[in-house]
Amino acid sequence: MSAHSDGPARVEVVLVKAGRMKIRYPAELLADDGVRATVRAPWAGEGVRDFGFVRFEPGDVFTEHYWRDRWYSVKEVRAADGTLKGHYCDITRPAELSAGRLVVEDLDLDLWVSADGGDIRRLDEDEFAASGLLTRDPEAAAAAVAALDELDARAREGGFGALLA
Q1: Which CATH number fits domain 10-164: 2.30.29.30, 3.20.20.210, 2.40.380.10, 3.40.50.11690?
Q2: Residue among 119, 45, 42, 58 at smallest CA distance from 86
Q3: Would you kindly state where each structural domain of the chain is located, as residue ranges?
């Protein structure tokens, strides 16, 4: 970003799943050190999405951390009033950022960590098993499972503070 910029840099976040675009949305690029890119965006879904243990809704703000060398992203979720709801972690192939597009491929596994760290949930393991990745690309499947295990361990051992610092 140059000194003559009219505002924060913008990127388009593109989430791909099973070879198809799942969602895309504009975001503000907060930082990019060449390994990790951090963006901020409002909830990009349609209306309210109630998971039973958390609700994503209009007004929520996601600060999203993507790595070019790790198989996950970590999204800090805050309500419109700034209250931390928790962290939603997507297991993905390493992110690619070029030409104003941040592209990640979702590998189905997810982790939810509530704001107080008391509720840690591994999600969509059934979708991952059904995806065929284990037979189609065993190395990627192993990396995905290892990434989920790493995030789960971090969440149980004190949270994501050091990872996101």
Answers
A1: 2.40.380.10
A2: 119
A3: 10-164
